[in-house]
Amino acid sequence: MEHLFSFNCPVCGQKLTLDGNSFRCPSGHSFDRARSGYVNLLLPDGKHAKLPGDNRQMVNARREFLEKGFYRPMADALCRELVRELTGKGNLTLLDAGCGEGYYTRLAYDALVQAGISVQLLGLDISKFAAEKAAKRFRPEEPVHIGAASIFHMPVEDESCDVVMTLFAPFCREEFLRVLKKDGLFAMVIPGARHLYGLKQAVYDQPYLNEVQDYPIEGMTFLRSVPVDDTITLHGDEIMSLFMMTPYYYKTSTEGQQRAAALEQLTTETSFEILLYRKA
Q1: Who contacts 133 (Cβ-Cβ below 8 Å, separation ≥6)?
Q2: How far apart are CA 126 and CA 186, in angstroms?
Q3: pTM, 2 dp
């Protein structure tokens, strides 16, 4: 399948086309694709930090943890739901908003292709370290573009996506609705109330439940919620990989970090909800 889709220019909003190893728009703005395969579409005035998003340490910790399959039951459930909703359809464009290092992006792409669903894929993450890792998961001949960009200002054309999925990323209803086609599918994964409660018990003096948001989203029709609950046991470095890939690590006292580092084994619940919607 040819690359029939692309990003929009973050400067002027016109369509970007791939010319050699650069994305260019009709006005002459150009963005080079890195050797790893991603393109940096973050403008200097759009950054709230010198290196926005997850740093290299967090990205590497997440990759190491996810590759061991601890969250694979949730990923497989998400893939089943995507295949269920999209079977019989083709030439789809899927956007993974906040794609991170591409673990779920790769699994979703493979599941759809294996089900005979032709799909083209865009992945965006504000962290250039994450975008770099995500791009390396795909071969140049696959119809996939990965970019570093904010999901609050996505360089994506209006109503150009058949599917938008987002896992643990910031929620931006207006942007999701803008890029989704009419009747487009929206898939979101959120942590359940007791997600990683065992980790919190080990690290915090007063562990707390996660706040779970209401299901209704204005402008979308709610289809269903698919809960995925499990219990995992981690050993040694696996514990710190999990801890460091969560926001808890950077919000925890030095004492709490030391508690986590001292753990030799950790058993904790994992709890997810896969939420599915159609653009109204």
Answers
A1: 36, 59, 63, 101, 102
A2: 20
A3: 0.93
Tokens (6 digits) for 19: 């010319």
* Tens digit of each residue's pLDDT (9 = 90 or more) over 72-92: 999 999 999 999 999 999 899
Name the token pair of 230: 């499990």
Cβ neighbours of residue 277 under 8 Å, at least 6 residues apart?
185, 186, 187, 188, 217, 220, 221, 222, 223
- In tens, the pLDDT along 240-269 reads 999 988 877 777 888 888 888 899 999 999
Which residue type does 149 have? A
> Cα 155 to chain center, whole Å?
16
Joined together, the tokens standing for residue 260 give: 């986590």
* 217 contact partners, CB below 8 Å, separation of at least 6: 173, 186, 277
Domains identified in the chain, total number:
1
Q: Which of 169, 162, 108 is nearest to 278 (CA)?
A: 162
Task: Say which residues have a Cβ less than 8 Å from residue 47's Cβ, sequence separation at least 6.
Answer: none
Taking CA atoms, 205 is separated from 13, 187, 208, 254, in Å, by: 49, 35, 10, 13
CATH of the domain at 218: 3.40.50.150
Q: How far is CA 71 from the centre of its chain?
A: 14
